[in-house]
Every structure is written in C-alpha cells, then in structure tokens.
Amino acid sequence: MKKYVSLLLTVLLLVTASLPALAAPAPKINLEQAVKIAKAAFPVPEALTEFESSYSAYSNKPQWNLNWNAPSGSVTRGSLSIAVDANSGDILSMYSWQDDNTPKAALPKYSRAEAEKLARELAANIQPRFAETRLVEFPDDERFWGGPASRHSFQFQRIVNGYPYNNNGITVEVDANKFEVTSYRFNWDTDIDFPQPDKLISPQEAEEVFLTKGAPRLIYFRPNPENNKERPVKLVYDLSRTTGYVVDAKTGEVKPYDYWYGPAGMGGMAKEEADRAASNELSPAEQAEVKELADLLTQEQAIAKVKVVFNIPKQMKLEQARLGKSWEYTLQRQWNFSWNVTDKDKGGESISASVDARTGDVLQYHYYSWSPYGSEKPKIKYKKDELQQIAADFVAKYQPERFAECKLEETQREDVIPLREDEQRSYSFNWVRYVNDIPFPQQGFRLEVSAETGKITSYNMMWADLDFPTAEGILNQESINQTVFETSPLVVEYLSVPQVEPGSSDDNKTKVGLFYYVQSR
Description:
This protein has helices at 2-18, 31-41, 112-126, 140-143, 203-214, 269-278, 284-291, 299-309, 384-398, 400-403, 477-487, and strands at residues 50-58, 61-69, 78-85, 91-98, 133-135, 151-160, 163-175, 181-187, 217-221, 234-238, 245-248, 254-256, 317-325, 333-343, 347-356, 362-370, 406-408, 426-435, 438-450, 456-462, 490-496, 512-518. The protein is an alpha+beta fold.
C-alpha cells in the first residue's frame, strides 16, 4: 500500500511539473504593502477589527481589495473598504460607513466651502495627479434633493492640454456633520493618446455646423394621460438631437454621440410591452364589461389578424393569451399573445404579438430564436438599402394610408460600427408620423429586419386619433437656437470615441478626440 501511495505521489509530481505555469505575474505591490498604503491614507477605526482581502485583475488592471469590518454583534457597526492598484500603489477607491442614528439638522454643521478644503487637502496628499484636475461646478439647485444635507460631494475632472476629459478624475465625499471623508474614487487611464489641440475650428463655426443636425426640432408631444383621460397634445421644441450630436473640433464634422455600440435594436421592445400589459390586466369587473361590447375581437379573431400579417409556424405552441389595457393609450384594449417551441438539440423560437381588440390592427410583433451551440458568425445576404425597402413595402402593404403620413427618421447612430463584427446581423428603421408637416415622434412605425434572412423580426405601430393644435404664435427656429446657445453654449472637451474599427489589434484601447458639444446637466 505504501509503495502504491509513493508511486501515485511521484506520478502527480511529474504531471504537475510538466504543466505550464498558469498563474499571472506577481503584482508589484504585495498585500502587506497595499495594507500599509491604505492605512497611511485612511486610518482604520479601532472598532473595525475584522479584516479580509481579495485580489482581482480586469483588463490588465490588478488591484487589492481590502475590507475592515466590525465584529458581528458589535455595539458599533461599520465597515471600511479600500482598493489599491497592485502595480502603481495608487489608492483607487475608499468607502467608509458607520451606523449613526442621531437626528440630523436641516442645515449641515460644516459648510460646502469647509468640506471642499478638506477634500482638496486629502486628494492632493494621496494622489499627485490631483494637480492635473479641476473642480466641476454644479448649480446649487442640482445638489439639493429635498432632505437634510448629510454630505458634500466634489468631482475633480482630469484636464489634458487645457481641456477636460470627464471620464477621468477624482471624486470625494465629505460627511457634512462629522467633517470626515467617507468616499474617495480615483479613475485615470494611462494608455490614451490625446490629440494635440491645434487647428481647431472656432465656436462660431462649430455652432453653424452643429445646427445642421443638432438644432432643436419642433414636434408634437403627447403628455401621459391623467386619471385615464387624454391631455391635449402640445407643440414643443425637442432637444434630444441637441444633446445627441457633437462637432469634431478639428474637422468640423457633425457626429452622433452616445455610449452605445451600433444602431439601436428592437430586441427588448416586445418583452417590455408584454410585461407592461401583464401588469395592467383587466379586473373581473372590466372583463365582464368588455364581454358586453360587441365590437371587441375574440381571441380566435385576434390571432387570425396576426396570422394574416405574420407567419406563425404550426409547431409553435400558444403559451399566453391575454386581454388588457394598453400601457400607452389606456382606453385602448389589446390582445397580447406569445408562442414558442423548444428543442434541446436544435434550440428554440419565440414570437410575441399584440392586436388592437377593436380595430384588429397588429400593434407589435417580435421574433426571437436561439441555438444550444451559441451564436455563430452571421451569413449576411442583404444590404441595408434592401432591408429598408423590405420594411417600407411591408408597412405600405398593411397600413398604406397611415404609412403615407410618415417619413423615415434618420438614425443618429447609423454610422457607428457594430462591436467587433464586420457586418451587422440586422437593421432598424423608424418612420415617424407627420401632422401639419410637423413630426410626431411618439407615433409611427418601427421595424427591425434580419440581414441574414431578409425577414422582419420586430414590428411596432403606435397610432391613435388625437387633436393637434396649429403652429400659430410659436417661437421661431432662430429664436430657439439662440436661446439654447445662451443657456448651454457649446464647450470643447476630450470625449471617448465609441466606434470600434473591425480588425483593429487594439480594440480594447480607449480612443478620444476633441469635440464641441452641448453639456447636458
């Protein structure tokens, strides 16, 4: 037996020795050093006697996570968490908490100016790069939330070549009554190439080109109903485009700007509609009333309406059928259906659809399929213009009169490259309803079409008969443009560029540029 155990140990040693080293390189800052760095910056309260640590590394950024806690059952409850960069020794974050049930006065004991001085002193003491930051000033009304002021928050944004880069910086929170720093965060990228701020277009030039796409747009707006009653449609200037575009400060090109990779899809729309419908089902009393209304479609009639427009494969099983109110138009009754089929070897498919229970109009449809083997590289067969024509022909066939009142809406993100894919799997198209030659973005048609099959995978129609005011006596476009720039002038900052170039060897590396944009706060 001893010989057998000895032989087994020998084999295990040989096998282990033959394996390649899988461990990551040892961090430059070990645990003992990290603890000393943390305690030098933030002394640990005596009551926090329990300690534990963990080590993590994401995107080649290793860090020590240090946690001190009060023992279970302790009279004084509290915790202190500190993260230390395992390469540089920088303190990345700190958060402290202590149980305190003492009543708070409406006005803080320490002023914001006093707290700012403490925040600056601490940040400068533990982080030399604090000298490369600038305090972001927010209006007083944005800091007030309606309750006693228990803390003062400060955001110091990184300044590069004289211009802000808001993705990096230092944030500090100070207890307004104890005069203690309760939170600290340091976020700083060291591998970004910042373009030099030379040959920038002027603010006047930026305003001129910005207005070609980012100008406020006159639209009709429908407020949410109040007590199940419609409120009058209003004429307003929509600022969503104003905050959705930026101007390249070097080239003068107007670009869409947000943090999404690729055009907005319709994937979650059907599920959200179904969830809202589920939470808004008719009560028994309402169902009894509905039965007396002869013009409502039966379940079978509503399903037949869906099948006229969309194919429902025979093998798919009807899982849900529900009659309820529309979440958007509470006087509208809808039939909501869902079908699915699942095969453990082939994957599955699901379809959801909604039908107006009075008119029989198909309001929404969504198709989804999945494979047990995961996602495969798409086999693209259709181009964007072909898919747009498929979508347009579809709506024109089933809703010709309403479609004639709509115009194709420009997709703000249409030039954004999908994340790490050479080709898109699908494209979304949005036709907005126009009344009196004024857009009404809350109504129209939204579709998504597969670039692999050419089939419509998502469809949504929002439409209702409403009264629209005339556009008389309103502010003109020039006046509203001037008002926007007076209240929120274009500013120049370094912004992250969300596009990912296909085939790039450094796709994970953050790219930035200098842009003019309207700061939204």
